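In this section we walk through a basic example: taking a raw amino acid sequence and producing a predicted 3D structure, encoded as discrete structure tokens. The instruction is simple. Fold the sequence below.
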Amino acid sequence: MLIHEFDKVTVLPQNSGGGKVDLPGAVVLDEALCSINNNKLSRMLTIMYAFISPVFYREILINHKKLSSFHNLSKLVYYSGTAIRIYRKLRKLLNNAGTNNVVLYTYWFSAATIGIGLLKKLMPSVRIVSRAHSCDIYEEYFSKGYMPCREQSAAYLDLLLPDSSAGVDYLIDRYPKLAGICEVGLLGVADPGYSSKSSTDGVFRIATCSFLIPRKRVNLILEALIQVQKINSEIKIEWTHIGDGPMQEELLKKALEITSTNIKINFKGYLAPDKLMNYYKNEPVDMFANVSEYEGTPVSLMEAASCGIPVMATNIGGNAELIDYGKAGILLAANPAITEIAAEIINAARHKDDLETKRINIKRVWIEKYNSEINFVSFAQRIRALPGNLPAERVP
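The resulting token sequence is shown next.
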């Protein structure tokens, strides 16, 4: 969508792993940033740059209390060193290409954001935009509760776009100076062209899709099914998890505690995006579940919504907004007890007619809020219309 609003789009990844994809003619791939922190020598160079970076010393003045721990100080060293190296690389690029009608955009509110922000001093007409999601918003989910250079990054931004109202409220509450530039920037997924079907054979089918790591808490679904087995052994349930990860062997062993023939568990492993959407198209799914410890607005939930699959999710990040505060799904507590999850599964399995209403509602929510074709056009138009200069008092 950006290519419809800009004459040229340059993509600058910070990592070069994986295969390359075909890009439209107006999109250029520049791997200039991929050499930053890609080996031991480069990481040593980043440390050296940190100690000559004004970002590093300014942050010590702003947040000296939080920097009393070695953990936080080392995080700042990495962050500020990376920022100054990105700044130097982009300064060279823009000196060669010019700065007329340039927008610099980061997908994460990270070290790259302040790196490009530093260009504002030399090139005031450059516009700085960043999205924000989960790990770059919610500070309490990180050890020591510290994310470097928030205030400094905010000073350079023209626009900050968290992916939920919850994210906007969180950031403005902690950094009031963001109030004028922080607004919701919804993401989205494409129209799959179908709606998933519900089960008609008396089995209640649950799907989950995530990397198997602790913060996704997929183990809670398994624990809840063990609880369901004890409470009501007559309900027929089939749970399918899509995705793999380091917790897989642990979960497979735990699944052996399911002895009821009425509860079936499938671990399908990783599925490519097209195969995942084919699964939702061809297999009945009665409910999608996400019980993560923290999220922004998960793509997995938006994919389920686009297919009309009701969602059960923890009340974190943008989850409540996506399921319309319970009208299009089931809203769990942020840290639900196993008994709460088990009770909601039993209730949903017993009252599938209620889920049919939620199935209609979740599709409506996707149409109104999470259709990528609409949201990405709006995003491109929004950043294209940004004024070119920050007020002088905002530039550090």
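Looking at the output, two observations stand out. Confidence is low (pLDDT under 50) at residues 390-395. The first helix runs from residue 40 to 50. In the next section we compare this with other chains.
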